[in-house]
Amino acid sequence: MSSGQFLEISIENFKSLQLKAIGMGLTQSYLPESHQLEYSTDKEWLVKVSLPWSMTIDESGKVFKKEDYHLALVMIRAGIAATGYFHNGELIDHKVIRAYMVRQKQGKSQIKYLKTKGKSRAGSRVRLGESEMFFKEINDRLKKYAANYPIDTWGISCSKTLWPFFFGATNPPPFDKKQENLLSIPFHVQHPDFETLLQIHRKLESFHLLLSDLGKSKLGSFEESINSPSGNESEDDW
Predict the structure, then answer these.
(1) Which of 169, 218, 224, 229 is the most exposed place for a label (fewest CB within 10 A)?
(2) CA atoms of 115 and 126, how far apart (whole Å)
(3) Does domain 70-196 have CATH number 3.30.70?
């Protein structure tokens, strides 16, 4: 059971924790679906460390930075989206895409409105047309990345409500929803603009620590000694 939130830590803190955990006889396991290292006993996990996306792990359990890393991010909310392509941590291309998808009085996206009301008037048809162009423009940009760069990892933040419209668009994205190198961005994205794109990328390039209740009792002193680079706990669930 988790005892708190993920805490951003430095690479030095991570190395120290790794040595301490192994010294305690904990088993180190890699969780590919969340890109995390887990340290556990035979019965339960004590520590989870989320690794920077630009780092990988070899068969011996050593973590190291990828020499040539291509990352593409897409963050989608109703009416606004941001895409970005990063090469070895440097932002090469980005785009913020907007569309008229929200009904002004209700503040609800047209997609959600039609699910509840089932009717489409003139304004609704305009918004639906905007929605179709919205997803087309997003996927055009992502296809451009796929055609021009050898993308290692695709990162996505998109509510499940919008998944059918994103993946089921006439012009679909260049990846499948179950593709192995498609990872869910583990941070909450409220407003996907340029500043948020940069903030999310910075978080994805950091180590994050989580202790279970048992881990807290066994390694609480270690957690207290950590000086987080940000000085704050992350408010996001991985």
Answers:
(1) 224
(2) 16
(3) no
